[in-house]
């Protein structure tokens, strides 16, 4: 059930250059949260009226917290980065649909593709898939070494390789280069990707026709709950636009064939 | 007379609060979050004769205490709205008066949509949107020209089965001229304001943030402009006004009624907080008590007594 | 070419920043707080032919991220301004280009004041205020009528000893019409925007907060509207534009230049923080570096290259 | 010298119903402050762009703090009331002109007239006059018993009497009643008053022609430093309005004959 939760900051750490991990405790974990869902966060500064969407990076039901991981890119994230322990935050969620995985066979081979701050929702997904016994290969791309985060944490769940745009760490190249050079010997039952639009376009092209290749799309949002039509995408089925998909309620996770990115 | 109730042509409102068009879809999503029967009414998203995808994205941008939108009247078209969206809403929330928002790019479209949608069960009134700033043709073109606005209103009033409230544009030199012209076509009332035209630019790309370049400014930033325009229209005309523009709390609602409104719609505030409308309704009685306002109707009467034309 | 310098008719600006008219008096008070020679220029308070007390108080009210003012062009009259205010300012800050703001209620007044004030030593340009919303006659009346605006501008251009920048009103249906008409009178450029008309009401008294009822809205709330209007005027006209409306920081300055401005005035921000202008000037180089802008002139050139008419 | 000081809240207490005393420490006390000057306070919430003016209620140069006393009447004061120790506040000041007293003879008889939240600047004035050896009579008016503050503190400096509008404490009546009934046997060399407009009008009428009767005026302000013309008053000398006074820079203290309230 979507609610406007008041969550308490129990921790905030800078996990890489300009990238923060925020731990938020409160009642939001009492209802089920799917991996890939997101929250819409009220910036704790009354000058800003639009909330900011962030993927849910981790759900801990036992201890009653969620984690968000975000990069400081503008005013809103700048303000979030200043929050310290004990501060409260209004968080609307959980929103959207998560990554589908009910179709997976036992011990399925799965490829996880994460680019930069697209990684957060894939962490929670990987954690769950791993505990369900699936075999994960994980390709992570970052702009450079300073911006790498969660490499070790992802490695817990499967074979993890990293590329950087500038070659300052791991393979120099794009995530598609990384996949082409390292992840071609298996045929994966499912591919889950999240990252900048370029990455998602490349993944969509690369895995064209794959029955279970999913991306989590980004869009400028306002409401996050389907009432404003800010976040629509054309569907591949009907480019006239008469039908369309809202990233906030129909997504953010789509099959790569479903929408025009 | 209840404390919060307001009677307007076609609209028996249990309270003066309704979500504004474009900020509540067709009621489906908000209806999953709270009981919409609590609302005075609901103003559903614009309907046009054909389905519309609307403008390319990005469609929204933030501004100080406001936002720009350039949705571009995205909607599934009047046929689907009448066949699916309205029946679904009406079936779930029997007590909720529905105000259908009608837009178009030519007078004939508006007339056809009014004709059709005004006959849908559950539709209590029409909001005639002659003021959308986000479409290339129609919309605001009508709202800024007294003659066109009069003609269009008259044609729609003639064909509609329910009262028509004409939604005026704030993007005009003198809204009184437009209001007076429209009033001659004898609509049931007015709704105002639609959004102010604005822009934002991205410093990195040096381009407009919105794909449509310009968008409509809404939210608290526009409140003083909305209050002025409502007051101006009120000063030349006795017709009911559903006011909107930047309202976020019970105090704003009362201020808008003092300015000249008879009921108040909440737009952008729903996007910041989907529970904004029920929260405002809940807050109203205590705030009214603080300012010695015994009922919304009494505040409207008090204003009528005072108003110097 | 320095990093921040801008050359405009009559104005050799060491940086694009100047306090806007009505938000810096005649420079006396700010001049006691910091060295005004740091500024690109200063736009002093409106001058009218006779002294004016202006409107009754209260003259200001707060709005979300904005304020209303209804000062009503209070000023000691052009004679005193020319005899005392300008000489004092010019004597203290030799390097500071002074832009004199001229207002009136009839064309003859405007012409007489332009004639007189344009000859005062230190006055580098005139800002012709045809857009003040806070006076019963004149002001905005000229600014919303293309013919009157053209006539007035032409008469003032003819008589003035310095370049004239015409200050346009945002309270119009289509600012391009006004700008095109005014451009035919060959002024040196435009300044925009003046304030949007707004109101606030007091819940206790149920009356408008401002004694004048309506006031002019300024501050961050209007920034997106200012950017849109500047962009619209830029799209129909090559004349220099001094932009203003809601600017509070170096980022806003650059955004306004991208929108179409060649220099930027800071109004309301001075009232929140009297050191706003020097703070923005100090901040500009680093923010420009962040967005790879080598100089203000280069940003203006880049925009000119891109602009599709 | 006027500066935009960043002051630190070192204490905040509710001294009477809805009335708060705020202690602010910082560099503002390093330059001289006259009794009767005020500060323009930035509301620590970015939705508000106008500062709020408050009289300086106490200056402690040795310990480096000032005190403000204010009543919660609207959003701005509501936000101030929530500040706790350690918070910082942007305070522009000191502004305006204080109460003139250089003309006073030694051990002069002085009448202080304070109404409600007009009292704060009179506290600092009384403190100084008392230490300079003058004899103070003090008349204080409040709406009711719950709103009385600083009665004991003012009593340190002179004979203090209180009236309340509703008679719930002290004399029932206005401050003019209080003066008529209790403070008529001396002829005061100076009268200093601050309070609501009604009080100031009454004081002006009552002491008409007195060479040294001063009031501190209130006005809706924006800048507080003379650049916006928000706060003007007509002068009694020229009601045409061609000349006029700004409360923020020419005042807030005026001789009762000087301005039209
Ligand atoms: C479903 C979804 C999940 C996301 N998950 C994450 C995440 O886990 N970690 C993370 O770092 N980022 C994530 N983002 C992007 C994140 O929302 C933006 O980086 C953030 O809103 C920027 O806010 P700002 O105020 O700092 O930037 P500003 O540029 O100042 O923001 C201005 C406006 O633009 C919007 N905006 C700016 N950049 C983006 C963007 N890339 N996508 C969508 N809206 C944007 C903001 O929401 C705001 O409305 C996600 C976006 C979506 C749609
Ligand atoms: C020189 C001067 C000294 C003052 N000293 C004190 C003091 O020591 N203690 C105290 O309690 N109050 C004092 N006041 C009044 C105080 O400024 C207002 O009570 C306060 O600004 C109200 O702010 P608000 O946001 O709570 O009210 P709101 O009503 O929400 O404020 C809205 C706007 O109106 C203005 N405003 C509202 N009431 C007044 C008022 N009475 N006078 C001036 N502006 C007002 C506010 O500054 C703001 O701009 C003084 C006023 C002046 C001019
Ligand atoms: C995202 C969005 C979509 C809107 N769509 C419509 C619309 O379809 N029809 C219409 O008449 N007004 C539309 N509006 C205008 C609102 O109904 C309302 O008039 C305006 O936003 C001012 O109110 P507010 O400040 O409370 O939002 C839209 C506004 C927003 C923010
Ligand atoms: C208190 C006040 C007084 C003003 N007086 C004048 C004036 O005398 N002449 C004028 O042309 N504009 C006047 N303006 C308008 C400003 O110069 C400026 O155009 C407007 O405020 C928008 O800029 P801002 O948002 O930065 O304040 C005044 C504005 C304010 C807030
Ligand atoms: S963000 Fe509002 S519909 Fe998706
Ligand atoms: S408050 Fe601005 S001049 Fe006094």
UniProtKB/TrEMBL annotation, chains A, D:
Record domain FAD-binding FR-type: where: 2-101
Cofactor comment: Binds 1 [2Fe-2S] cluster per subunit. Binds 1 FAD per subunit.
Binding locations of FAD: 69-71, 76-77
Protein name: Dihydroorotate dehydrogenase B (NAD(+)), electron transfer subunit
InterPro entries: Cbr1-like_FAD-bd_dom, Cyt_c3_hydrogenase_gsu, Dihydroorotate_DH_ele_sf, Dihydroorotate_DH_Fe-S-bd, Dihydroorotate_DHASE_ETsu, FAD-bd_FR_type, FNR_nucleotide-bd, OxRdtase_FAD/NAD-bd
Purpose: Responsible for channeling the electrons from the oxidation of dihydroorotate from the FMN redox center in the PyrD type B subunit to the ultimate electron acceptor NAD(+).
Description of how the protein assembles with itself and partners: Heterotetramer of 2 PyrK and 2 PyrD type B subunits.
Required co-factors: [2Fe-2S] cluster; FAD
Residues reported to bind [2Fe-2S] cluster: 223, 228, 231, 248
Family the UniProt entry places it in: Belongs to the PyrK family.
One Gene Ontology term from the biological process aspect of the record: 'de novo' UMP biosynthetic process
A single GO molecular function term of this UniProt record: oxidoreductase activity
Keyword Transport assigned: yes
Pathway membership: Pyrimidine metabolism; UMP biosynthesis via de novo pathway; orotate from (S)-dihydroorotate (NAD(+) route): step 1/1
Pfam family, one: FAD_binding_6
Keywords for the protein's UniProt record, in alphabetical order: 2Fe-2S, Electron transport, FAD, Flavoprotein, Iron, Iron-sulfur, Metal-binding, Pyrimidine biosynthesis, Transport
From TrEMBL, chains B, C:
Residues given in the record as FMN binding sites: 21, 45-46, 101, 129, 167, 193, 219, 245-246, 267-268
Signal peptide residue numbers: none
Domain Dihydroorotate dehydrogenase catalytic: start-end pairs: 4-288
Pathway noted in the entry: Pyrimidine metabolism; UMP biosynthesis via de novo pathway
Enzyme Commission number: 1.3.-.-
Keyword Oxidoreductase among record annotations: yes
Coiled coil: none
Main localization, broad class: cytoplasm
Gene3D superfamilies: Aldolase class I
Positions bound to substrate: 45, 69-73, 129, 194-195
Record's cofactor remark: Binds 1 FMN per subunit.
Subcellular location: Cytoplasm
Any GO BP: 'de novo' pyrimidine nucleobase biosynthetic process
Function: Catalyzes the conversion of dihydroorotate to orotate.
HAMAP family xrefs: DHO_dh_type1
Name of the molecule in the record: Dihydroorotate dehydrogenase
Origin species: Agrilactobacillus composti DSM 18527 = JCM 14202
Encoding gene per record: pyrD
């Amino acid at each position: 059930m979507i609610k406007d939760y008041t969550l308490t900051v129990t921790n905030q750490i800078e996990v890489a250059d300009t990238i923060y991990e925020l731990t938020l405790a409160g009642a939001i974990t009492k209802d089920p949260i799917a991996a890939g869902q997101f929250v819409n966060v009220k910036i704790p500064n009354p000058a800003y009226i639009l909330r900011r969407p962030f993927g849910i990076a981790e759900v801990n039901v036992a201890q009653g917290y969620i984690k968000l991981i975000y990069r400081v890119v503008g005013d809103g994230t700048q303000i979030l980065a200043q929050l310290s322990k004990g501060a409260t935050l209004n968080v609307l969620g959980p929103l959207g649909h998560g990554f589908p995985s009910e179709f997976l066979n036992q011990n399925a081979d799965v490829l996880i593709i994460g680019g930069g701050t697209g990684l957060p929702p894939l962490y929670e997904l990987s954690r769950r898939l791993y505990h369900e016994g699936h075999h994960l290969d994980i390709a992570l791309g970052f702009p450079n070494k300073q911006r790498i985060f969660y490499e070790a944490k992802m490695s817990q769940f499967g074979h993890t390789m990293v590329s950087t745009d500038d070659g300052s760490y791991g393979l120099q190249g794009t995530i598609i280069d990384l996949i082409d050079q390292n992840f071609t010997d298996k045929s994966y039952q499912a591919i889950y990707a999240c990252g900048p639009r370029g990455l998602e376009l490349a993944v969509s092209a690369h895995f064209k026709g794959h029955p279970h290749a999913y991306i989590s799309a980004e869009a400028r949002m306002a409401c996050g709950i389907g009432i404003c039509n800010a976040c629509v995408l054309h569907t591949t089925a009907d480019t006239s636009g008469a039908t369309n998909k809202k990233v906030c309620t129909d997504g953010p996770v789509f099959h790569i064939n479903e929408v025009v990115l | 007379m209840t404390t919060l109730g307001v009677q307007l042509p076609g609209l028996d409102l249990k309270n003066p609060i309704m979500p504004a068009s474009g900020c509540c879809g067709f009621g489906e999503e908000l209806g999953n979050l709270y009981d919409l029967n609590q609302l005075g009414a609901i103003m559903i998203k614009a309907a046009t004769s054909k389905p519309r995808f609307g403008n390319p994205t990005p469609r929204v941008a933030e501004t100080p205490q406001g936002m720009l939108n350039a949705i571009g009247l995205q909607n599934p078209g009047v046929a689907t709205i009448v066949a699916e969206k309205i029946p679904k809403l009406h079936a779930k929330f029997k007590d909720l008066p529905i105000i259908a928002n009608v837009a178009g790019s030519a007078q004939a479209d508006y007339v056809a949509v009014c004709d059709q949608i005004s006959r849908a069960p559950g539709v209590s009134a029409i909001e005639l949107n002659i003021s959308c700033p986000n479409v290339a043709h129609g919309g605001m073109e009508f709202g800024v020209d007294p003659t066109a606005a009069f003609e269009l209103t008259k044609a729609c009033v003639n064909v509609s089965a329910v009262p028509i409230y004409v939604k005026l544009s704030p993007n005009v030199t003198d809204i009184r001229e437009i209001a007076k012209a429209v009033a001659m076509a004898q609509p049931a009332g007015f709704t105002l304001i639609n959004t102010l035209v604005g822009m934002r630019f991205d410093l990195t790309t040096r381009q407009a943030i919105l794909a449509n370049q310009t968008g409509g400014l809404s939210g608290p930033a526009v409140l003083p402009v909305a209050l002025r325009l409502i007051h101006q229209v009120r000063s030349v005309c006795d017709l009911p006004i559903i006011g909107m523009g930047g309202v976020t709390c019970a105090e704003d609602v009362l201020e808008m009624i003092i300015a000249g409104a008879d009921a108040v719609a909440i737009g952008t505030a729903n996007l910041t907080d989907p529970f904004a409308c029920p929260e405002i309704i809940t807050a109203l009685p205590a705030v009214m008590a603080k300012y010695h306002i015994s009922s919304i109707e009494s505040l409207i009467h008090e204003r009528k007594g005072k108003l110097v034309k």
